[in-house]
Amino acid sequence: MPRLFALSALSLAVALSTAAQAAPNTERGKGPTQDSSIALVQLHGEPLATYVKTKPAKGKKIDFGNTSTKAYRAQLSALRNDFKAWLRQNLPQAAVSGEFDLALNAVAVKLNGASLAQLQASPLVKTAQYQGIYYPVGTDPDLAVIRAEQAWASLGGSNQAGAGVKVAIVDSGIDVGHPCFSDAGYAAQAQLGDRRFTNNKVIAAKVFNMKAGSRGYTAEAIDSHGTHVAGTVACNYQTPTTVDGVALPYAMSGVAPRALLGNYNVFPADVGNARSEDILNALEAAYQDGFDVANMSLGGGAQGVQDLLTVAVDNLDQANMIVAVAAGNDGPGERTVGSPGSAERALTAGASSVGHEIVHLVQLNATPYASTKGDFGAGPATAPLAVLNDASSPYNGLSEACSPFAAGSLNGRIALITRGTCDFSVKVRNVQAAGGVGAVVVNRVPGLMVMGQNGDGLPQPSIPAYMVDQLDVAAFKAADGVSTTLPQFGTYQANAAKNDLVADFTSEGPTDVDFRIKPDVMAPGVNIVSSIPRAYCGGAPCFAFFNGTSMATPHLAGSAALLRQAKPDWSAVQVRSALVNTADRKVIKDLTGTQILSNANLVGTGRVNLPAALGAAVSLDPVSLSFGPVPSGSGQAMSRTVTLTNTSGAAQTLSLAIVEAQGSGVGFSVSNAPITLAAGASTTVQIGMSAAQGAAMGNKQAVLQVKAGAQVLAQAMLYVRIK
User: Fold this and answer.
1) Distance from CA of residue 159 to its chain's centroid?
2) Angle (deg, nearest 10), helices 308-318 and 276-288
3) pLDDT for res 30
4) SS3 for 265?
5) How buried is residue 633: exposed, middle or buried, by Cβ count under 10 Å (0-12/13-18/19+)?
6) Which of 189, 256, 302, 658 counts the highest number of beta carbons within 10 A?
């Protein structure tokens, strides 16, 4: 994935084809997670999204022309003016750089030496925090996995799928000249923002970045990340597709091919990160411009339960905008989900695989080994192999190439290194700087992936680089000095047995501090083909393979667009519930493909199933339940409330059951009394959790099933952590 915004630095997990310059990859980024020179300050008083007289009715949006809305906006403006007056009197060095009233009642403040404690001394301030820094987080086989084409049939076919729904891409821009975004056959639309970068398909183009004004940045798609994400959401139906000179045996389509798009560029030009206020400005603008869904394939460091960007995402959901967010690429490992993917009401995506790739054969003498070509220079290249052993490396006993080598130490040779913890661009750059003419990178797990460039602003390496399978490491380590050939061309291969493997980089829950289940649901995020700008390939049309939760997120955003089209009166939470609570369980497998994974904080409810979501007959709010951390010796019992709504259009009688309980010493409970609901009616139910005193420490989970007779209509994950 290319850029993410900067909360914590969730590294992008994008793997591009050969020419995609700025695409991120699945190695972890090392950028800063906060900007201590500028704060986001939440003031007392509800924003428009949650204030009782301005928040919209279920399934509706805020009415900005309403008298009550105008009056309350004026009150909030006066409150902000009072704060600015307080600031001038008490902290004259500080300056307000941005104002918000829709998702948050807040201001952005350049501190200029002032402290957060000094800001919080104002009686007008609810909380103040440093701004997070966010980064971009790198039949169609992926559409087949989520059964998109079957969903299209219920919406009038591919020529209608997504029609009339607007999806905001909060990212690095959209290349409006790409054939994925041709407006041929689209009705005339009101075009917003910089019309050099809009048409009747991409109907808005705006830039939001603190550096934009001073540096003359525009909404133009310079980086490739946003264009790739946008293609996954809504590339026009059956756009002919070629990757790295290889024509694919299918023509790609977005999940919602007739949806309209908005370019809300928070990573303009070569800017690799964005501040909290940039993202908040983009979200509020997209909402006011009438967009139904926002895609944020970005992330940063979570700041606990008072993380203001997550508060904003939650509030926008309550104001009826669905916000799909990447979980992040910092896995494996617990509590690695970033912000704002950690928001309770975000539709948070984890990544799983699609079993297809373009395979290049690297030759050791005359023996071929399957590989994937990185997004760097072009082959062919033939030279002796230099095996860079490192006994201290936990990855294959090879150098990670994260630090420079001695000048000239690799002259005229191809370096054998390992995937590890630094960006692929860093590795290949270090090899080239030492005189290497190519690189072979051994994966740190079985299998292959495409290596993408990172957007660090430094010159990208120009030598070819190829990834080989960890299973072949012994053969390569034994080949020091052997003539090695890196190929120029590859071959497309598809293998459905490699679908639905968990991505080894996908971030895991629970969320920090409050121990909430995340991600919500899995979607394809490994080996995803989509559009990239013309500058990133040898000849149009331009497409590339990327990897990352950034790539999974637009599958959810496109799915949400189809649901918004089919069910225009549904609230945002009903759309989220349909996607999360009807997902296919027990389909995501480990990297070997032999073990089904059920950990709620790794795979959520399962992998999204679009036809099932469109047929959802009941919604749950919240979509999952966490009972938080419970001390082992406490012997606690507690309950949580879930709101059930009958979305079927007819009266139905429901029953509830707890199944698939995992972990001893903890029990989950619910009444099994039947519940009869009229069409559209709601009720609340209590879910209990009882932890025995001295219960074994660790994660405990179960599944709440909602049934009509023997048919399971929905299922939600339940979770508690004994510590």
Assistant:
1) 27
2) 10
3) 45
4) strand
5) exposed
6) 256
Give the pLDDT score at 455: 60
Q: C-alpha angle with apex 229: 582 to 508, nearest 5 degrees?
A: 55
Supply the pLDDT for residue 247.
87
d(CA 199, CA 500): 36
Out of 425, 550, 624, 626, which one is annotated catalytic?
Answer: 550
The CATH classification of domain 356-494, taken from the options 2.30.30.240, 3.50.30.30, 3.40.50.300, 3.60.40.10: 3.50.30.30
* Annotated active-site residue in 171, 223, 244, 520: 171
In the predicted structure, residue 21 carries a pLDDT above the cut 70:
no
DSSP 3-state assignment of 34? strand
* Count of beta carbons in the 10 Å neighbourhood of residue 481: 10
For domain 617-722, give its CATH number from 3.40.50.720, 2.60.40.2470, 3.40.50.12780, 2.60.40.2310: 2.60.40.2310
Is 555 an active-site residue? no
Distance CA(458)–CA(460), nearest Å, equals 6
Strands in 213-305 per DSSP E: 242-243, 246-247, 260-265, 274-275, 293-296, 298-299
Q: Tell me the C-alpha distance between 274 and 4, whole Å.
A: 8
Q: Would you call 178 a catalytic residue per the annotation?
A: no
pLDDT of residue 279: 96
- Which pLDDT tens digit goes with each residue over 267-312? 998 788 899 999 999 999 999 999 999 999 999 988 766 789 999 9
User: Residue 232 in contact with residue 256, Cβ under 8 Å?
Assistant: no
Q: Give the closest residue to 155 by CA, choosing from 569, 570, 565, 572.
A: 565
The set of residues, in sequence order, having a beta carbon less than 8 Å from that of 18 and lying 6+ positions away, is 244, 373, 374, 375, 376, 378, 537, 538, 544
Other beta carbons within 10 angstroms of residue 572's beta carbon come to 23
Q: Contact 579/347 with Cβ under 8 angstroms? A: yes
Question: Domain 1-353+498-615 is classified in which CATH homologous superfamily?
Answer: Peptidase S8/S53 domain (3.40.50.200)
Strands 491-494 vs 356-364: parallel, antiparallel or unpaired: antiparallel
- Residue of 17, 140, 225, 297 with catalytic role: 225
Residue corresponding to tokens 């760097």:
376
Structure token digits, residue 192: 């917003």
Residues counted in the chain: 723
Cα–Cα distance between 431 and 424 in angstroms, integer? 11
Mean per-residue pLDDT, 665-683: 95
Backbone phi and psi for residue 414, each to the nearest 5 degrees, phi listed first: -100, 125
pTM for the model stands at 0.86
214 pLDDT band, cuts 50/70/90, is confident
Active site residue 550: yes
| Averaged pLDDT of the chain | 91
Q: Position 395: which residue type?
A: Y
Q: Which of 340, 286, 255, 278 is nearest to 609 (CA)?
A: 255
Beta strands in 443-490 (DSSP E): 465-468, 483-486
Residue 157: how many other CB atoms lie within 10 Å: 12
Q: Which residue has the tokens 């006011």?
A: 288
Domain ranges within the chain, ordered by starting residue: 1-353+498-615, 356-494, 617-722
- pLDDT score for 447: 85
The SS3 call for residue 440 is strand
Tokens read off for 317: 């959901």
Task: Choose among 448, 404, 445: nearest CA to 422.
Answer: 404
Alpha-carbon distance 268 to 291, whole Å?
21
| Alpha-carbon span 82 to 652, nearest angstrom | 53
User: Measured between alpha carbons, how far is 392 from 153 in angstroms, rounded to an integer?
Assistant: 55
What are residue 438's DSSP bridge partners? 414
Residue 638 corresponds to which tokens in the numbers above?
């507690």
